[in-house]
Amino acid sequence: MQFPKIWLLRHGQTEWNAERRIQGQLESPLTPLGVEHARRQAVLMAPVMAQGPDCFASPLGRAQQTADIALGGAPFVTDPRLAEAYAGAFQGMTLEEVAAGYPGIYRANPRNLDLFCEAPGGEGYGSFHARILDFMQSLTGPTVVVAHGLLGQVMRGIVCGLPRDWMAALPNGQGCVYVLENGAETVLE
User: Which of 84, 94, 92 is nearest to 63 (CA)?
Assistant: First the structure.
C-alpha cells in the first residue's frame, strides 16, 4: 500500500512519561525537556514547513502543545483518529501499578503497544490499527502528523509493512522526526 510522504512527530516528554505513568487518552503537560524536544523538532521541520505541507495533530493537549512549537506556528487540523490508544483501566496507572494489579497481562505483554492494547476496557489493537489506517488512506499529499508513541509505531509499521510484533519493538523517539516514504522510514535528529 502506498501513502503520500509523511513527517511524523511524537510529542515531547510529558510529566507522566517521566513518571512511567500510562497516559493513553488522559492529559499530562510537557516537561521542560518536552518543550526542548519540540524546539529541536522545529529546527528539523523548518525547511519542510517552507514547502507548505498539510499538517494534522492529535486532539490531545501534549500533541497540540508540541505542534504549536514544532510547526513554527503554522496552522494544523486536529483529527480524532490521531489520538493515542485508549488504554482503558490502565490509564493513569504507572507501569509498576499495572504489574502489581494485573500481573498476568503485564507478564504476557512486555512491550507497551501490546500492553496498552490488552488493557481491560481499552480500545484494543484491531480498532486502534483500523483508525490509524483510515486516517492514512484519507491523505492526499505530503503530510505532517504530530501525535503519539504507540500511534507512531503502528503508522510507521503500516508504511514499512511490518507485522505487529515488529511494530511494538520500534523505538519511540522524542525530539526527532520520522520521515515515512516509499515503504521505508528515515529519522531526522
Answer: 84
In angstroms, the CA 91 to CA 88 distance is: 6
User: Could you tell me which of 96, 97, 86 has the C-alpha nearest to residue 123?
Assistant: 86
Q: Indicate which residue of 11, 37, 129, 148 is catalytic.
A: 11
Nearest to 63 by CA among 145, 184, 3, 167: 145
Tell me yes or no: is domain 6-188 CATH 3.40.50.1240: yes
Q: Which of 37, 84, 129, 148 is the catalytic position? A: 84
In the residue annotation, 181 being an active-site residue is answered as: no
CA distance 103 to 132: 29
Asked whether the whole model's pTM tops 0.85, one would answer yes
Task: Spell out the domain ranges in the chain.
Answer: 6-188
List pLDDT tens digits, range 33-80.
Answer: 999 999 999 999 999 999 999 999 999 999 999 999 999 999 999 999
